[in-house]
Amino acid sequence: MPRPDPADPFGTAALREGTLLAWASSPTRLREDAATEADLVRAGYRDRVLTELAQNAADAAARAGVPGALCLWRDGDDLHVANTGAPLDEAGVQALTALRASSKTGGVGRFGVGFTAAAAVSEDIEIRSRSGSIRFSAAHTRDALADRGVPAPESGIPVLRLAWPASMPPAPGWDTEVVLRLRPGIDAETLLDGFAAEAVDLLLELPALAAVTVGGRELTRTCTEAESGLRVVAVGERTWWEYAGPHARWLVPVVDGVAVPVPQDVLRAPTRSDEELSLPALVIADVPMQPDRRRLLPGAPVAGLARGYAGFVAALPPRQRPSMVPVPGFARSEVDALLREAVLQELRAHPWLPPAGGGDDLVPDRATALTGLTDELAAVLADVVPGLIRPDLCGPRYAAALGAVDVHRLGPARIAELLAGVEREPAWWYRLYEALTPLVVDSVVAEELAAIPVPLSDGRTVTGPRTAVLGTDVGHLRMPWVRLVHPDAAHPLLTRLGAGTVTAVDLLADPALLAAVEDVDVDDHEATAELAEVVLRLAAQVPAEAVPRELGALLLPDADGELVPADELLLPGAPLADVLVEDAPFATLDPQVAEQYDAEALRAVGVGWGFTVLRAELPTGPDHDLPDEERWWGTLDEDPESLVAVRDLDLVDDARWDRALSLLVAEPGTAAALGDRRGYTAWWLRTYASLGGRTLGHLRAPDDEAFAGLLDPCPHPDADRLRPCLAATGVESTETAALLLDRLADPDRTPAPAVTARAHAALAAASAAGMLDLDALHLPDAVRSLAGSIVDAADALVLDRPWLAAVVPADRLVLGALPTAAVLADLLDVALASAEVSGHVTGPGRATGWRNEPAAVLAAAVAQRPLPRGPLVVHERLTVRCSGAVTGERDVSWWVDESGTTHCTGPGLAAAVAALSPPEPR
Questions:
Q1: Which of 27, 388, 390, 661 has its Cα between 20 and 30 A from that of 640?
Q2: Strand boundaries in 540-625, DSSP class E
Q3: Is 370 exposed, middle or buried (0-12, 13-18, 19+ CB in 10 A)?
Q4: From residue 699, how far is each of 694, 719, 721, 729, 742 by CA, in Å?
């Protein structure tokens, strides 16, 4: 084999000669070559100068087994592109001049057809290499054609078909250098700026290329393997995560540790093509391309590129994985449609979804997303709803992505369905309700959860909160007659879903409970014990007055083990037992039961300690099983708003009322009942209770002087607190009236005159008010006079005219209130003084007027009374001649005659003013 010419190491002369002979012999061939090169420059390789030169540099580095480096700089109008790697060889030169052929056996470009892109910016191209240099020149080619007499084609001179040897070596430190003498009108600086923008993509696309320097600005690529299986690729200040599949590499930009989906891109094979994609990651694929590397070859295996994509997604941080799922949308190209569907199929078929609570990744068709899922809810539902994915992936943000890969999505209604039949402890249900609460944002969600199971206090589980009620501080009690939510599961969410709420008061008043108390089998000791447990535990949580009296029928064991209604039992050691009659219908509660339950609760249901208080709101009649209740009810003008009454007063031993009253006063509940004078308790005690053989209503409070001398003071030490149960300061009944009449006629009684007058006034007022049954009164034969003496009723006179008091003897005069004197006379069957006594004034007097008498005016002013009206006659001495029950002449200080004229002595003016003029209103 002949040695190459050192001046032409690649044999370019022979290559030129062969090409020129072909053109000379076939002008058509020349035109074809010119047109082909022009087409490649204008279409196939437009805007791909740097891409094609970078591919050549990457292949050279790969062949040499060194990190590839590419450097671009400007020297005047010349653009220099230098690279490291294998130098130019003869086969490469032949490929460059052959136009339609390439010498590469691997890589993506080794001085093949793609080098034609250089002709887009230059007609004078020099390739300098350590092995030799060549030059392409449109001017030289034009001269060579002229020398051969071959006319130049109209489409232009083909630049890259004829090569000439060149002598310049590459720049120091570089293995190959391409010098492009730019065409007129091409700005080198603008071209470099464009190349700088492409540099980052080229470093990602061409792994053999490690560094690119454009105009002094160097970009390098570094790669770091991550534990997740990803490779961290950094170019300058930008970072990508890369994952290599069998037929493609996938890259996604990373900002602050977060993958940022790519909105749109093109297929890279490995450099950018014209196949538009809408995948969220960059695709650098190994796939057959057309010669200009802009489009895929027909029938290229696009679907195979998706293999490994699920592994790429699974290697990402869990929260970022759904962002790598292609969401539904219009494909940007046919290739995009095929590749998107292949990627989705890849994702559907492999595990990559992170489960809630950790563990192995889930395949999408076995995964479940619950909108609004939280860590707490996921933990509760872990063994109920299989395949739940992480809560942070269940929100609306990722709904489209999860739907694209067929992840099952649950709503609240489906959750309620899945929970049907689930058996769990009540505390588990509480945690479930707590975790579901954030999901219930409106009535729609509440309706979807309407069928959620609810555990009850009796161990059952029912469907739906609307049929259940939540207890407020009712404790852990089994109540089969009410759907009471178990207290360990009672959550406020249930009320939002339709559950009612009840208190211990509500439960005690429940007709179902009252029916259970009435219907319980007395022979079923277990049932009665359970019922007593419920009632007494509830009663311990409410005020005693809130416990229905019907619960007094609750069966409890007595000291002998017999079941007895609660209101027929007494607590052990009850002081009430000491005041009752010997045959009282009360047994003693079993001491063990008394120790087991709260004493106040036992008392509230009727078990006695002291006296029991009955309370009823808005009573409508005497139907409360109280002794003599109907008689008391008849004393009322209208139905009371409430009834508060002490029970079993009729069972007190008459000899023990002293202790019974002390017991009533000592207990706050019964003491309050004593305070209502018109109430049943005070009435009954006034009527039937006795101390020392004396009815309580016939005794007065020690400090009550209204009827002192007529009524005896109450001897009980708590008499002041018993005041409503004692005699009143007035006459309230026929019984009291009869007592006072008898006492007034009793010679052994010595009431003061004021007491006598007050008693007479009270009797008359009661009679005038219609409070007395006159037919039931037995009138004594004698009455009490103002003088305190007992006088025969036939001889007594009731004072009805104040001036008559001056002539009627005090031991015959009966005094009450003047306005009701006629009523008193009728009541006592005693004559009125004015009817039995008359008088005639004798002697002269001076006619005058009230306003003219200083003494009268002074008396009226002092007494704060108006002056009387009518005629006035003033006498030095005033004598009245009496007739009737009183006879003879009597000296008086004032008198009113039958004509209405007032006669007065000077001293009598004050008395007349006081008697005849009512007090002035204040």
A1: 661
A2: 555-557, 563-565, 569-570, 587-588, 613-617
A3: buried
A4: 8, 10, 13, 11, 15
Q: How many residues does the chain have?
A: 922
Amino acid, res. 738: A
CA distances from 179 to 81, 96, 211 (A): 6, 15, 19
On whether the CB atoms of residues 83 and 69 are closer than 8 A, the answer is: yes
Handedness of CA 184, 185, 188, 193 (dihedral sign): negative
H or E element in which residue 60 lies: helix 49-64
Q: Are 788 and 753 in contact (CB under 8 A)?
A: yes
> Average pLDDT, stretch 530-536?
91
Going by C-alpha positions, the residue among 721, 724, 747 that lies closest to residue 662 is 721
Q: Which amino acid is at 369?
A: A
**Does residue 270 have a cis peptide bond before it, meaning omega lies within 30 degrees of 0?**
yes
**Direct distance between the N- and C-terminal alpha carbons of the chain, in angstroms, rounded to an integer:** 154
The residue assigned the tokens 């309706």 is 447
Q: How far apart are CA 1 and CA 654, in angstroms?
A: 154
Q: Are 131 and 166 in contact (CB under 8 A)?
A: no
860 and 920 in contact (C-beta within 8 Å)?
no
What is the distance of C-alpha 76 from the center of its chain?
77
- According to DSSP, the residues that pair with 178 across neighbouring strands are 81, 127
Tell me the per-residue pLDDT of 611-664, one tens digit each, with 9 for 90 and over. 888 888 899 999 998 999 999 998 898 999 999 999 899 999 999 999 999 999
**Residues in Cβ contact with 611 at an 8 Å cutoff, skipping those fewer than 6 apart:** 576, 646, 647, 648, 649, 663, 664, 667, 670
Which residues share a beta bridge with 831? Answer: 797
Alpha helices in 492-633 (DSSP H): 492-496, 504-508, 511-519, 525-539, 591-596, 599-604, 629-633
**Whole-angstrom Cα distance, residue 367 to residue 353?**
8
Q: Write a three-state SS string for 91-124.
A: HHHHHHHHCCCCCCCCCCCCCCHHHHHHHHCEEE
For residue 340, CA distances in Å to 280, 393, 405 come to 10, 21, 12
DSSP 559: T
Beta carbons of 741 and 735 less than 8 angstroms apart: no
Ramachandran class of 690: left when φ > 0, alpha when ψ lies in -120 to 50, beta otherwise: beta
**Neighbour tally for 21: CB within 10 Å:** 11
Q: Which amino acid is at 255?
A: V
Reported confidence tier of residue 689, pLDDT bands at 50, 70, 90:
very high
Say how far apart CA 705 and CA 754 lie, in whole Å: 10
pTM listed for this prediction: 0.64
In terms of Cα–Cα distance, which of 312, 331, 313, 109 is closest to 206?
109
pLDDT tens digits for 113-133? 568 888 888 999 999 999 999
219/210 Cα distance (integer angstroms): 9
**Alpha-carbon distances of 585 from 167, 479, 555, rounded to whole Å:** 138, 31, 15
* Region for residue 459 given its phi and psi (left: phi exceeds 0; alpha: psi -120 to 50; beta: otherwise): left
**Residue 891: Cβ within 10 Å count:** 11
- The answer to whether 99 and 37 have CB atoms below 8 angstroms apart is yes
Q: How far apart are CA 125 and CA 162, in angstroms?
A: 11
DSSP helix/strand/coil, 330:
coil
C-alpha triplet 155, 161, 163: angle, nearest 5° = 135
Are 346 and 309 contacting, i.e. CB atoms less than 8 angstroms apart?
A: yes
**Residue found by looking up tokens 């869990």 in the block:** 318
